C-alpha cells in the first residue's frame, strides 16, 4: 500500500504508524525517567548511610562503635558499587542492537535497582535460574520489559507479597522462558486481553514513587517482545496472583554472526538489519 495519497497527505496507516512510534518512544522515555529517579534515590540512600555512620564513628572513639561504623560504611560502599555496575550494564547495551544477551545478568542488575523499593513495600523477591544459553535480544529493551513487569507486580501487592522470577530453557522450540510470578490481586479473566492495549489502566495515576497509571507499560512490552520474534503471555487468578511469561529465541547460527559473548566489547556488537530476523 502506498504511504501517501495523491494529495501528498500521509495515509491513515502512516499516521497510525507514526503515533505508534511516538507511543513507544514515550514509554521508553518514561521508563528511563523512572530508572533515573530510582537510581538517584537508591544512591542517595547509600550516601546517607555512609555519612551517618562516618559521623557516628567520629563522635564515638571506642573501638567497638568505630568497627561497627566502618563495617556499615563498607557494606554501603559495596552496594554503591553494585548500583554503579548496574547502571554501567545498561550503558554497555546502549547501542540498541541485537546481541547475544545474558538474561540472568539483566535480571540481577534490574533487581539491584529495585531492591530497596521492593523491601519498602514488603515484597520478597526470589530467583531461580537454570543454566540457559544467551538469547538474541536488545538488552536495554528487555530490561525495559523486565522493569515494567516488576513494577506492575509490586503495584499489584499493596500489602506486600512475593515475586518469583524464573529462567528456564524450552528445549522444544529453542527459546528461553522468563517468568515473573506475583502474589498480588490478580486480573479478572474478561480483562486479560485488554491489559495489553495502549492506555488500559486500572490505576488512578502515578503512585508515591511516581510510577504507573498511564497504561502504556504492557503495550510497550508486547511490541518489544514481538519485535524480538518472542512471545508474551499472562496467566492470572483473582486474589491469588499473576504470572507473565516471556519467551525469547536462543542465539543460533542462522542469526548474523556474533562474537563469543564472554570476550566481546560493545564496539564488536553487530547490528541487525531492519527486517525481523528469521528464527530456525
Ligand atoms: N502483575 C499484575 N497484577 C495485576 N494486574 C496487573 C498486573 N500487571 C498489569 N496489570 C493490570 O494491567 C493494567 C495495564 O498495565 P500497564 O503496565 O500497561 O499500565 P499501568 O501499569 O496501569 O501504567 P504504566 O503505563 O505507567 O505502566 C494495569 O493497570 C493493571 O490493571
Ligand atoms: Mg505498568
Number of strands: 7
The helix content is: 40-55%
Q: Order of helices and strands, N to C?
A: HHEHEEHEEHEE
Give a quick account of the main beta sheet: strands, pairing sense, barrel closure.
5 strands, mixed
Low-pLDDT regions: 259-280
* CATH C-level name of the largest domain: Alpha Beta
Overall morphology: globular
Radius of gyration: 21 Å
Count of discrete domains: 2
Quaternary? single chain
What structural class is derived from the secondary structure elements?
Answer: alpha+beta
CATH-derived architecture of the largest domain: 2-Layer Sandwich
| CATH homologous superfamily caption of the largest domain | Histidine kinase-like ATPase, C-terminal domain
Tell me which ligands are bound: adenosine-5'-triphosphate, magnesium ion
Average pLDDT, rounded to a whole number, is 84
Amino acid at each position: 500500500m502506498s504511504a501517501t495519497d495523491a494529495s501528498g497527505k500521509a495515509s491513515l496507516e502512516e499516521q497510525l504508524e507514526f503515533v505508534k512510534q511516538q507511543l513507544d518512544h514515550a514509554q521508553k522515555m518514561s521508563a528511563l525517567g523512572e530508572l533515573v529517579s530510582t537510581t538517584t534515590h537508591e544512591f542517595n540512600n547509600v550516601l546517607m548511610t555512609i555519612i551517618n555512620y562516618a559521623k557516628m564513628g567520629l563522635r564515638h572513639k571506642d573501638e567497638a562503635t568505630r568497627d561497627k561504623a566502618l563495617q556499615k560504611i563498607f557494606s554501603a560502599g559495596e552496594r554503591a558499587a553494585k548500583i554503579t555496575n548496574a547502571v554501567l550494564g545498561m550503558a554497555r547495551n546502549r547501542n540498541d542492537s541485537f546481541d547475544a544477551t545474558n538474561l540472568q545478568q539483566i535480571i540481577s542488575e534490574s533487581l539491584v535497582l529495585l531492591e530497596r523499593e521492593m523491601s519498602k513495600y514488603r515484597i520478597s523477591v526470589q530467583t531461580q535460574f537454570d543454566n540457559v544459553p544467551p538469547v538474541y535480544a536488545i538488552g536495554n529493551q528487555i530490561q525495559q520489559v523486565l522493569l515494567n513487569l516488576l513494577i506492575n507486580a509490586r503495584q499489584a501487592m499493596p500489602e506486600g507479597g512475593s515475586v518469583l522470577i524464573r529462567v528456564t530453557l524450552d528445549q522444544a522450540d529453542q527459546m528461553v522462558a522468563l517468568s515473573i510470578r506475583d502474589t498480588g490481586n490478580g486480573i479478572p479473566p474478561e480483562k486479560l486481553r485488554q491489559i495489553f492495549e495502549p492506555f488500559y489502566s486500572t490505576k488512578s495515576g502515578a503512585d508515591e514513587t511516581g510510577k504507573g497509571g498511564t497504561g502504556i507499560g504492557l503495550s510497550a512490552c508486547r511490541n518489544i517482545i514481538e519485535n524480538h520474534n518472542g512471545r508474551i503471555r499472562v496467566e492470572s487468578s483473582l486474589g491469588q496472583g499473576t504470572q507473565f511469561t516471556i519467551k525469547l529465541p536462543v542465539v543460533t547460527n542462522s542469526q548474523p554472526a556474533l562474537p563469543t559473548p564472554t570476550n566481546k566489547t560493545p564496539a564488536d556488537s553487530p547490528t541487525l538489519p531492519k527486517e525481523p530476523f528469521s528464527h530456525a
